[in-house]
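Translate sequence into structure tokens.
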Amino acid sequence: MFQQESTRNLVFTPTELENLEVISKGILSRKNLAARRNVTTRAIDSTLAVIRGKLHSKNGLELAFKLCELKILPKLSSTEKKYYDNLQLTSKEWELISLLLTMRANFTYKKASQQVPLTEIGVKKIFNNIRNKLHCHNLAELVIKLHQGGIIQ
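Result follows.
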């Protein structure tokens, strides 16, 4: 369960806390979140915009990094954590994860392709492989799962 974050004087409404809790479980797409909460995607957009505003985040990826920094995301169970302990990623996948963590919210596939000897399509393919291995829908969800799995701090 989510706790109010007091160190930065942030106050979330119960609805915002519910959305954050669902987000932390890996249901980051607007459509999935709306279906789970039985509301419209417009209502989800509005609530997420308020959360992003409170956390000064310009997009979902930056929001994911901020949630990790605040340490308000619940940790995985020991059974779930074992999956991450045995995670098999290639050196190129680790290199791109490292680049994502360095670039943070400024990350784009195009910018990443300028940093490594890959095309933008090549970078996308590798991130698709990573997301498939971790059952993630997008980069924000990937960041949250890597954090919850203890792979990144």
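Note: The domain at 78-148 is CATH 1.10.10 (Arc Repressor Mutant, subunit A).
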